[in-house]
Amino acid sequence: MKTIYDILLRPLITEKSNMVKDALNKVSFIVRPDANKTQIKDAVEALFKVKVAGVQTAVIRGKMKRMGRHLGKRPNYKKAVVTLKKGYAIDFMGGA
């Protein structure tokens, strides 16, 4: 049995995700690869006490990287973009 802390691994904080959060009230998370949209929705609602309007997921493939003459690969991960209902917000930075 997975808990809400097992499903949501960490928030995805980038320049683009911050702009989308401010403009469209969408928050991005990195989630477990086997988590489905219903589990992600329930986890966000339980953890942050907000109402979720929708969830979009995408599997991001890791890029090939070089370290000198050696080739390596970054790991794959699953990203979830959660749309919050009007009037709800999540603040990761803890601003006043």
List keywords for this structure.
96 residues; alpha+beta; Alpha-Beta Plaits; four-stranded antiparallel sheet; two-stranded antiparallel ribbon; 3 helices; 6 strands
The CATH C-level name is: Alpha Beta
Number of helices: 3
CATH topology: Alpha-Beta Plaits
Number of strands: 6
Which regions are unreliable across 5 or more consecutive residues at pLDDT < 50?
A: none
Tell me the strand percentage band: 35-45%
Topology:
Blueprint: H1 4-7, E1 8-11, H2 15-24, E2 26-31, H3 37-48, E3 52-60, E4 64-67, E5 70-73, E6 77-84
Antiparallel strand pairs: 1-2, 2-6, 3-6, 4-5
Could you describe the 3D structure shown?
The protein has 96 residues and is an alpha+beta fold. The chain has a single domain, classed as RRM (RNA recognition motif) domain (Alpha-Beta Plaits), CATH 3.30.70.330. It is 27% helix and 36% strand. It contains 3 helices and 6 strands. The protein has a 4-stranded antiparallel sheet. Strand 4 and strand 5 form a beta hairpin. It is globular. The model has no long low-confidence stretch (mean pLDDT 94).
